[in-house]
Amino acid sequence: MNYSEQHFRNQGAPPYPGPPMATPSTYPTPQKTPQYVPSQPPAPNYNTPRVLHIYRDGITHRHMTITDEAKHLPLYKIDQNSGSVFSSKPHMTIANASSSQTIGTATFHNWSRTIDLEIHGRPIPFESEGFFTRSYAFSSPAFGERLRWECDGIFGADLVLVNARKEWIAKFDASLFSMSKTGKLHVVNGSITGVALDEIVVSGAAMVQHERRRRANSGGGGGGGG
User: Fold this and answer.
1) Which of 127, 182, 197, 215 has the CB geometry, 3.0–4.6 Å to 220, for a possible disulfide?
2) What is the pLDDT of residue 86?
3) pTM for this structure?
4) Is 136 exposed, middle or buried (0-12, 13-18, 19+ CB in 10 A)?
5) Is 29 exposed, middle or buried (0-12, 13-18, 19+ CB in 10 A)?
6) Is 68 helix (H, G, I), strand (E, B) or coil?
Protein backbone atom coordinates (compact mmCIF):
# COMPACT_ATOMS: atom_id res chain seq x y z
CA MET A 1 0.00 0.00 0.00
CA ASN A 2 1.62 3.31 -0.96
CA TYR A 3 1.36 6.58 0.88
CA SER A 4 -1.55 7.92 -1.07
CA GLU A 5 -3.66 4.86 -0.37
CA GLN A 6 -2.74 4.92 3.36
CA HIS A 7 -3.57 8.63 3.58
CA PHE A 8 -6.97 8.00 1.97
CA ARG A 9 -7.76 5.28 4.53
CA ASN A 10 -6.72 7.45 7.44
CA GLN A 11 -8.67 10.51 6.35
CA GLY A 12 -11.79 8.71 5.24
CA ALA A 13 -13.64 9.15 2.02
CA PRO A 14 -13.65 12.72 0.89
CA PRO A 15 -17.05 14.41 0.78
CA TYR A 16 -17.51 14.12 -2.94
CA PRO A 17 -20.42 16.31 -3.95
CA GLY A 18 -23.44 14.42 -5.25
CA PRO A 19 -26.97 15.31 -6.28
CA PRO A 20 -29.01 16.79 -3.42
CA MET A 21 -31.60 14.55 -1.83
CA ALA A 22 -35.06 15.37 -2.97
CA THR A 23 -37.50 16.35 -0.25
CA PRO A 24 -41.28 16.48 -0.56
CA SER A 25 -41.08 20.24 -0.96
CA THR A 26 -38.67 19.95 -3.85
CA TYR A 27 -40.44 17.22 -5.82
CA PRO A 28 -41.22 18.53 -9.31
CA THR A 29 -44.90 19.23 -9.90
CA PRO A 30 -46.22 16.82 -12.54
CA GLN A 31 -47.58 18.57 -15.59
CA LYS A 32 -51.16 17.65 -16.51
CA THR A 33 -51.76 16.69 -20.10
CA PRO A 34 -54.55 18.90 -21.41
CA GLN A 35 -57.64 16.87 -22.25
CA TYR A 36 -59.62 17.61 -25.40
CA VAL A 37 -63.23 18.25 -24.51
CA PRO A 38 -65.48 18.57 -27.56
CA SER A 39 -67.90 21.46 -27.46
CA GLN A 40 -71.47 20.46 -26.75
CA PRO A 41 -74.63 22.33 -27.72
CA PRO A 42 -76.51 23.75 -24.75
CA ALA A 43 -79.12 21.42 -23.33
CA PRO A 44 -82.64 22.43 -24.31
CA ASN A 45 -84.64 24.21 -21.66
CA TYR A 46 -87.79 22.14 -21.41
CA ASN A 47 -89.42 24.69 -19.10
CA THR A 48 -90.05 26.93 -22.10
CA PRO A 49 -92.14 26.31 -25.22
CA ARG A 50 -90.52 24.54 -28.13
CA VAL A 51 -90.75 26.24 -31.51
CA LEU A 52 -90.73 24.35 -34.81
CA HIS A 53 -90.47 26.14 -38.15
CA ILE A 54 -92.41 25.06 -41.24
CA TYR A 55 -90.98 25.88 -44.68
CA ARG A 56 -92.21 25.23 -48.19
CA ASP A 57 -89.88 23.35 -50.52
CA GLY A 58 -90.67 25.49 -53.56
CA ILE A 59 -93.43 27.95 -54.31
CA THR A 60 -96.35 25.60 -53.55
CA HIS A 61 -97.44 23.76 -50.43
CA ARG A 62 -97.02 20.31 -51.95
CA HIS A 63 -93.71 19.70 -50.15
CA MET A 64 -92.79 21.17 -46.77
CA THR A 65 -90.11 20.71 -44.14
CA ILE A 66 -90.43 21.18 -40.39
CA THR A 67 -87.18 22.13 -38.66
CA ASP A 68 -86.01 22.56 -35.09
CA GLU A 69 -85.88 25.92 -33.32
CA ALA A 70 -82.43 26.73 -34.72
CA LYS A 71 -83.83 26.19 -38.25
CA HIS A 72 -80.95 23.85 -39.15
CA LEU A 73 -82.15 20.33 -38.32
CA PRO A 74 -85.03 18.94 -40.43
CA LEU A 75 -87.42 16.94 -38.25
CA TYR A 76 -90.39 16.16 -40.51
CA LYS A 77 -91.16 16.11 -44.22
CA ILE A 78 -94.69 16.78 -45.48
CA ASP A 79 -95.75 15.67 -48.97
CA GLN A 80 -99.16 16.28 -50.47
CA ASN A 81 -100.84 14.25 -53.15
CA SER A 82 -102.20 16.46 -55.89
CA GLY A 83 -104.91 13.93 -56.77
CA SER A 84 -108.59 14.54 -56.27
CA VAL A 85 -110.43 13.96 -53.02
CA PHE A 86 -111.93 10.85 -54.63
CA SER A 87 -108.52 9.17 -54.70
CA SER A 88 -107.94 6.37 -52.19
CA LYS A 89 -104.38 7.57 -51.70
CA PRO A 90 -103.77 9.77 -48.60
CA HIS A 91 -103.74 13.43 -49.52
CA MET A 92 -100.97 14.21 -47.04
CA THR A 93 -98.05 12.13 -45.77
CA ILE A 94 -95.83 13.18 -42.87
CA ALA A 95 -92.49 11.38 -42.52
CA ASN A 96 -89.46 11.47 -40.26
CA ALA A 97 -86.93 13.66 -42.06
CA SER A 98 -83.88 11.56 -41.17
CA SER A 99 -85.25 8.04 -41.69
CA SER A 100 -88.01 8.82 -44.26
CA GLN A 101 -90.29 6.56 -42.20
CA THR A 102 -93.95 7.54 -42.46
CA ILE A 103 -95.24 9.03 -39.21
CA GLY A 104 -98.79 9.72 -40.28
CA THR A 105 -101.21 10.48 -43.09
CA ALA A 106 -104.33 12.56 -43.62
CA THR A 107 -107.17 11.90 -46.05
CA PHE A 108 -109.88 14.47 -46.83
CA HIS A 109 -113.39 13.77 -48.13
CA ASN A 110 -115.96 15.72 -50.10
CA TRP A 111 -118.89 13.76 -48.65
CA SER A 112 -117.78 13.94 -45.02
CA ARG A 113 -116.44 16.62 -42.71
CA THR A 114 -114.30 14.02 -40.93
CA ILE A 115 -110.62 13.88 -41.82
CA ASP A 116 -109.11 10.42 -41.61
CA LEU A 117 -105.80 10.53 -39.77
CA GLU A 118 -103.45 7.60 -39.38
CA ILE A 119 -100.59 8.02 -36.90
CA HIS A 120 -98.07 5.20 -36.50
CA GLY A 121 -100.51 2.84 -38.20
CA ARG A 122 -103.43 3.68 -35.93
CA PRO A 123 -106.58 5.18 -37.52
CA ILE A 124 -107.69 8.32 -35.68
CA PRO A 125 -110.86 10.14 -36.82
CA PHE A 126 -110.35 13.92 -36.88
CA GLU A 127 -113.90 15.17 -36.51
CA SER A 128 -115.61 18.50 -37.02
CA GLU A 129 -117.27 19.83 -33.89
CA GLY A 130 -120.22 21.27 -35.73
CA PHE A 131 -121.39 22.63 -39.05
CA PHE A 132 -121.03 26.25 -37.94
CA THR A 133 -117.68 25.85 -36.24
CA ARG A 134 -114.15 25.56 -37.60
CA SER A 135 -112.94 23.36 -34.73
CA TYR A 136 -111.76 19.78 -35.22
CA ALA A 137 -111.13 17.28 -32.44
CA PHE A 138 -109.59 13.83 -32.01
CA SER A 139 -109.07 11.35 -29.20
CA SER A 140 -105.34 11.30 -28.51
CA PRO A 141 -103.79 7.93 -27.56
CA ALA A 142 -100.59 9.68 -26.44
CA PHE A 143 -102.26 12.29 -24.22
CA GLY A 144 -105.11 10.04 -23.12
CA GLU A 145 -107.76 12.70 -23.70
CA ARG A 146 -109.65 14.52 -26.43
CA LEU A 147 -107.80 17.42 -28.04
CA ARG A 148 -109.23 20.13 -30.25
CA TRP A 149 -107.71 22.40 -32.90
CA GLU A 150 -109.55 25.70 -33.26
CA CYS A 151 -108.99 28.90 -35.22
CA ASP A 152 -107.40 31.91 -33.56
CA GLY A 153 -106.17 35.36 -34.48
CA ILE A 154 -107.60 38.32 -36.37
CA PHE A 155 -107.61 36.61 -39.77
CA GLY A 156 -108.44 33.16 -38.43
CA ALA A 157 -105.28 31.74 -40.04
CA ASP A 158 -103.67 30.95 -36.68
CA LEU A 159 -104.64 27.79 -34.81
CA VAL A 160 -104.49 26.56 -31.22
CA LEU A 161 -104.62 23.03 -29.84
CA VAL A 162 -106.40 22.77 -26.49
CA ASN A 163 -107.58 20.03 -24.17
CA ALA A 164 -110.96 19.70 -22.42
CA ARG A 165 -109.77 22.11 -19.72
CA LYS A 166 -109.04 24.78 -22.34
CA GLU A 167 -105.32 24.46 -21.64
CA TRP A 168 -103.10 25.22 -24.61
CA ILE A 169 -101.07 22.29 -25.92
CA ALA A 170 -99.72 23.93 -29.07
CA LYS A 171 -100.20 26.96 -31.30
CA PHE A 172 -99.69 27.47 -35.02
CA ASP A 173 -98.78 30.97 -36.19
CA ALA A 174 -99.22 31.44 -39.93
CA SER A 175 -96.56 33.39 -41.84
CA LEU A 176 -98.99 35.34 -43.99
CA PHE A 177 -96.44 37.50 -45.78
CA SER A 178 -93.57 35.05 -46.31
CA MET A 179 -92.81 33.53 -49.70
CA SER A 180 -91.01 30.52 -48.26
CA LYS A 181 -92.32 29.96 -44.76
CA THR A 182 -95.70 28.47 -43.86
CA GLY A 183 -95.54 29.29 -40.17
CA LYS A 184 -94.30 28.35 -36.71
CA LEU A 185 -95.55 25.62 -34.42
CA HIS A 186 -95.23 26.44 -30.72
CA VAL A 187 -95.37 23.42 -28.41
CA VAL A 188 -96.24 24.80 -24.97
CA ASN A 189 -94.46 22.05 -23.02
CA GLY A 190 -90.97 21.66 -24.47
CA SER A 191 -90.60 18.18 -22.95
CA ILE A 192 -93.23 16.76 -25.32
CA THR A 193 -91.49 14.39 -27.74
CA GLY A 194 -92.05 11.06 -29.48
CA VAL A 195 -95.56 9.93 -30.37
CA ALA A 196 -97.16 12.88 -28.55
CA LEU A 197 -95.22 15.35 -30.70
CA ASP A 198 -96.03 13.30 -33.79
CA GLU A 199 -99.75 13.60 -32.99
CA ILE A 200 -99.44 17.37 -32.66
CA VAL A 201 -97.56 17.66 -35.97
CA VAL A 202 -99.82 15.34 -37.99
CA SER A 203 -103.10 16.74 -36.69
CA GLY A 204 -101.81 20.32 -36.96
CA ALA A 205 -100.63 19.82 -40.55
CA ALA A 206 -104.01 18.32 -41.44
CA MET A 207 -105.83 21.25 -39.85
CA VAL A 208 -103.68 23.80 -41.70
CA GLN A 209 -104.35 22.03 -45.00
CA HIS A 210 -108.08 21.77 -44.25
CA GLU A 211 -108.26 25.53 -43.65
CA ARG A 212 -106.33 26.18 -46.86
CA ARG A 213 -108.77 24.00 -48.82
CA ARG A 214 -111.73 25.73 -47.20
CA ARG A 215 -110.45 29.17 -48.16
CA ALA A 216 -109.69 28.03 -51.70
CA ASN A 217 -113.20 26.59 -52.10
CA SER A 218 -114.75 29.80 -50.77
CA GLY A 219 -112.66 31.96 -53.11
CA GLY A 220 -110.35 33.16 -50.36
CA GLY A 221 -107.12 31.95 -51.98
CA GLY A 222 -104.19 30.34 -50.21
CA GLY A 223 -104.38 32.56 -47.12
CA GLY A 224 -102.27 31.39 -44.23
CA GLY A 225 -99.74 29.49 -46.30
CA GLY A 226 -97.82 32.58 -47.32
Assistant:
1) 215
2) 58
3) 0.73
4) buried
5) exposed
6) coil
Collect all residues with Cβ–Cβ distance below 8 Å to 151 and sequence separation of at least 6. Answer: 134, 135, 157, 158, 159, 211
pLDDT of residue 29: 59
Q: How many C-beta atoms surround the C-beta of residue 40 within 10 A?
A: 6
Bridge partner list, 129:
none
| Cα distance between residue 15 and residue 98, in whole Å | 79
- Inter-residue contact 63 to 192 (CB < 8 Å): no
> 3-class DSSP state for residue 175?
coil
Angle of CA points 45, 51, 52, to nearest 5°: 130
Instruction: Find, among 48, 66, 111, 21, the residue nearest to 201 by Cα.
Output: 66
Residue 214 DSSP one-character state: H
